[in-house]
């Protein structure tokens, strides 16, 4: 282990973690720290420097995310052998880990740019080296209503009756379920009684519950799903040992006609508001057809409405659940996009048959979302704070999306080779450049300091995946970063062979 | 639906929810509300009365827990047909739902008494009707360090770098893992690097992860387990389709000699510090034997140390993990007993082989514990607040346990027919009364207004379950309640045929 003695300037505009990160990176790339060296622990280095642990942890994670150091279980962090050009490893493909799960490693998930751009973006010099990350998982945390939340949490942290310091209701706090039922009715047309809502600690936990309830018969579960689904969904299908039939996507969503040729399935998994990752919306005729087919074949529809709150063009499209008269739809929503992923709050709206199974209690579901955060969320919704936040975020993201679309249209060739899809809702879109290779596009972008993400990995049948298509999330970037990012992308891709 | 017009006196010493609960119960038992009537929704009644929703929700839940009303999915709460004597249904067996999961329904889990005893315990009259609940799941929330937590949460709710408003590290916040590693080393002898800790949102999520990692080979999982395990553990074994071999328990824990006759298993599940539910501690020679057997047979040991912090007699016994030199032990701990179950915070310490599988990322594990609460917990530990809290709680629970033991010894016959086991650690003990039936003991207690809990349901092989044995938790009761409860129990049981 070595001792590090970075010069820390607490009065600098540059945050301490950035100073630390830069220092260690420089020591490494200039050969003053050898490969295979163990770095001091976070505790030790922060103690030595007389600073808190957070900046040290942040700097270490950034170095790790960029491949300068790696973590050895039970031993600590070790420096890596660097390539001659000292270029960090490309970690493409890690940036879109979850609808609700995901990785905090900076440099993944569209969050890394914050580390270096905050407080330094006005500086000259190293700016051109900083990554602009079009990751999918990022939301604009700078607008988080921290004051309101401090108030609501303080209100909950009064041990009056102690209710919030015990195990919560297995289905979630009643107050929050009431607020969600009313919110979903107003904004998504969802029709439900609060008692049919089960709170979860993230989309994947809610999906896991629904799959458990559907699969309760014990026989092998058969599901149909949109041909492209998020990783975590795939992993849950695997976990439930489900036999999965992929259904092709058209520009207006799932090919519902294929459903009739599908052997009997217990459920079909869809993202009708904003298909993940492709981004199209399921058309009204197809919605009706899907619901009719589900009712007549006795199939459940699992509707994952992960970012249905954000729609920029046309009328708001209600959830599929809103049109379901036969108790077929199990609906999933989350506060991860609408507010923050860090409260771990999602919800499932169960149809009567699944609700009954939930209460029969043969599943292994456990309420994993904190009653305290649930109650604070209920207060926040009741106070009107959430509605206000959503209105502000909707117009904020609309401006970001507009900036991205405008920049792309102004910079990229209008020869019909470049297409954009999925831009009318959500926090990401796809860009296809005919004749180019996905991996080459990502590498070229990376070389110009921009991260964009692959989509082919989401296809259930690899051979059906599109080529020359990348995913661009815009939730976590400023308009200025978006413009700079697109200009670098244009340079990168126009210069490709 | 009826409208209710309860007289609410906001200046009364009696909390509003108690007033509401009493009013509705009286209307019901005196026949002014018919069976099958729908009660107004929480929202509606609180609106009508101009009070917040919490007291209404609390009163409703208490009525539901006591069987006066029942919830009909998608419709609301309906009043029940009452027995002639208006006695609530006995819900024995629901009070011990989880090591970390559990039910908040008041009247279950040892929490119900708080509703009526708070602020009313000095009153004469109805006091004799109030239940004293020796539920297992209760901790003393009245000592929750709310001030310190308000401070730490406010500190976390500063969107400086936004880190706590994003997805967290999949393994948990680094700061918390450092604090836990150091805490476990000091208090439980556990030897681990922070990087081998994975934060979970409760014991069951941590156990689920460990079972996923152990079972990754894909073949049917075979596990051995103490012959009595908690419900949630059973449900997780079911979920993993594990073939379970129960191992008998002696007064010094697991019969390790039976392990040699057990067909090969992938893991053995144990609660060595305080067997759940029986309460004995695994003896030192058996610990060594278990570890040797695990190392030589290549078996994992899953150690659930759910309340190892509380030990009242003799030297503190380190965790099994502390003696493991071969990477066999996967250790689980929780903050549910030590602080509160409502933060949903647990941790697993993984041996290198399982840690490697965790990072290979083929599991469906998702970090479900809030990064915000994780960071606040780290701050709370770092500040010394947690250590202080633990010292206070340890002596508080010791006094409660002493009060319970003393009351039991003074009141119950010393003829050798009554035995107490598991009293040297944790927050519950077992009482066996030879010649009596478990169910009859519970019913007799219930009739005197005391809830004690069955244990036979925990046995993996029903026919091995003991008879005449009940579980008494004491964490959530005051010393006065404990004394009153024991005196009622004595009356109840001595009067049994």
Question: How would you portray this structure in words?
Answer:
The structure is a homodimer of 497-residue chains. The first copy, chain A, has 497 residues and is of the alpha/beta class. Chain A folds into three domains: 16-129, Arc Repressor Mutant, subunit A; 146-384, Aspartate Aminotransferase, domain 2; 388-494, Aspartate Aminotransferase, domain 1. Helix content of chain A is 36%, strand content 13%. Chain A is built from 15 helices and 17 strands. In chain A, the strands form five sheets. Chain A has a seven-stranded mixed sheet, with helices on both faces. A four-stranded antiparallel sheet of chain A has the order 13-14-17-16, covered by helices on one side. In chain A, helix 10 links the parallel strand 9 and strand 10. Chain A starts with 15 loop residues before the first helix and ends with a helix. The model of chain A is unreliable at 84-129 (pLDDT under 50). At the A-B interface, helix 3, helix 5, helix 6, helix 7 and helix 8 of A face helix 3, helix 5, helix 6, helix 7 and helix 8 of B.
């Amino acid at each position: 282990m070595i001792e590090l003695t970075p010069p820390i300037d607490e009065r600098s505009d540059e945050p301490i973690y950035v100073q630390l990160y830069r220092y260690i990176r420089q020591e490494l790339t200039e050969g003053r720290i050898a490969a295979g060296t163990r770095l001091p622990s976070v505790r030790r280095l922060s103690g030595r420097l007389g600073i808190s642990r957070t900046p040290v942890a942040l700097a270490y994670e950034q170095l790790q995310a960029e491949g300068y150091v790696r973590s050895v279980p039970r031993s600590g962090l070790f420096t890596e052998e660097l390539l001659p050009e000292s270029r960090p490893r490309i970690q493409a493909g890690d940036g879109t880990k979850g609808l609700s799960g995901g990785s905090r490693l900076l440099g993944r998930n569209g969050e890394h740019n914050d580390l270096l751009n905050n407080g330094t973006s006005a500086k000259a010099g190293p700016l051109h080296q900083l990554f602009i990350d079009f990751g999918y998982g990022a939301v604009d945390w700078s607008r988080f209503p921290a004051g309101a939340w401090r108030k609501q949490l303080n209100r909950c942290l009064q041990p009056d009756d102690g209710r919030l310091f015990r195990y919560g209701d297995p289905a979630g706090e009643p107050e929050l379920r009431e607020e969600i039922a009313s919110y979903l009715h107003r904004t998504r047309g969802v029709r439900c009684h609060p008692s049919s809502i089960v709170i979860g600690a993230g989309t994947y936990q809610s999906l896991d519950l629904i799959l458990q309830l559907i699969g309760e018969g014990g026989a092998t579960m058969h599901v149909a799903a949109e041909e492209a689904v998020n990783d975590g969904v795939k992993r849950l299908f695997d976990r439930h040992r489900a036999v999965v039939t992929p259904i092709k996507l058209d520009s207006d969503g799932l090919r519902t006609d294929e459903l009739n040729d599908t052997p009997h399935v217990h459920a079909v998994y869809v993202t009708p508001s904003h298909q993940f990752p492709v981004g199209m919306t399921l058309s009204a005729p197809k919605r009706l057809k899907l619901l009719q087919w589900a009712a007549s074949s006795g199939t459940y529809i699992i509707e994952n409405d992960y970012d249905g709150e954000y729609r920029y063009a046309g009328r708001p499209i209600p959830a599929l659940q809103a049109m379901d008269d036969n108790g077929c739809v199990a609906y999933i929503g989350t506060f991860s996009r609408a507010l923050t992923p860090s409260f771990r709050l999602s919800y499932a709206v169960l149809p009567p048959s699944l609700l009954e199974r939930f209460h029969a209690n043969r599943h292994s579901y456990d309420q994993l979302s904190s009653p305290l955060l649930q109650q604070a969320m209920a207060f926040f919704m009741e106070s009107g704070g959430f509605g206000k936040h959503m209105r502000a975020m909707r117009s904020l993201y609309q401006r970001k999306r507009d900036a991205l679309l405008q920049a792309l249209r102004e910079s990229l060739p209008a020869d019909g080779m470049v297409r954009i899809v999925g831009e009318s809702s959500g926090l990401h879109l796809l860009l296809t450049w005919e004749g180019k290779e996905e991996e080459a596009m990502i590498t070229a972008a990376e070389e110009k300091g921009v991260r964009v993400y692959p989509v082919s990995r989401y296809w259930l049948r690899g051979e059906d995946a599109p080529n020359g298509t990348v995913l661009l999330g815009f939730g976590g970037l400023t308009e200025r970063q978006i413009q700079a990012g697109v200009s670098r992308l244009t340079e990168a891709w126009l210069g490709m062979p």
